[in-house]
Amino acid sequence: MARCILACLQTGQDAAAKRIVDDSKQIIASAPKTDDDLGMLEYYGFASAYFPALSTLEMRHWSDVATLDPPVGVSPDLLSITNGA
Predict the structure, then answer these.
(1) Enclosing domain of residue 78
(2) What pLDDT, on the 0 to 100 scale, is given for residue 85?
(3) Is it the case that residue 42 has pLDDT exceeding 80?
(4) Distances from the Cα of 5 to the Cα of 55, 59, 65, 77, angstroms
(5) Which residues 6+ apart lie within 8 Å of 51 measured at CB?
(6) How far apart are CA 66 and CA 69, in angstroms?
(7) What is the pLDDT of residues 5-14, one digit of tens each?
(8) What CA–CA distance (Å, rounded) separates 54 from 68?
């Protein structure tokens, strides 16, 4: 999914990239909050930080970069994705 959003953004498919970000938010919100997810919990944390930051930067929405909120409950290394944007 991460490659797909990057490909959409780099080929001018902004609406498709926005759908990926929006869809990923719904998937992440409904994701299991236990370790019974076969390792996907870490990916959900990554996606919740990476997709909004990538989308905002690639679309050059500079004023929105400053207002990105880090995802709640993710590890410090994932917080750095948002804070580094």
Answers:
(1) 2-84
(2) 60
(3) no
(4) 8, 12, 17, 21
(5) 2, 5, 20, 21, 24
(6) 9
(7) 889 988 999 8
(8) 11
Q: Which two tokens stand for residue 32?
A: 């299991």
Total domains in the fold of the chain: 1
d(CA 62, CA 68): 10
Helical (H) or strand (E) element with 83: helix 76-84
Write the pLDDT tens digit of every residue in 49-84.
Answer: 888 899 999 889 999 988 988 888 778 888 888 887
Tokens 């019974």, located at residue: 36
User: What are the tokens at 6?
Assistant: 């990057």
Q: Give which of 36, 38, 41, 52 is closest to 2, Cα–Cα.
A: 52
Contact (CB, 8 A) for 68 and 54: no
pTM for the complete prediction?
Answer: 0.72
Provide the 10 A C-beta neighbour count for residue 13.
15
